[in-house]
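User: I'm writing a short methods note and want a consistent example. For Secreted protein, I'll paste the sequence; you return only the structure tokens, no commentary, since I'll be parsing the reply automatically.
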Amino acid sequence: MEVPLKGGVREGALGIMVTCQGNGTVNVTFAPSGLSFPLHCSDGDVSTTYNQIDLRYERESAFVKVQAPSTIRWAMSVGQ
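Assistant:
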């Protein structure tokens, strides 16, 4: 799933928090920077990770891409 960040992003810190439950791995990518990170999930447990990137430039177009198997329930929060 690709989630567009409406209005783009400003220069400065951008935080991405992902929570998941189920068996497998969630892979998260922020474009256009290429920041990418995995979150390993397991049945019966809720896993959470928070990553922050300091952007040097404003970007009019940006999105976060999440790849996960259908066996995983996940939620994401993105903020500046």
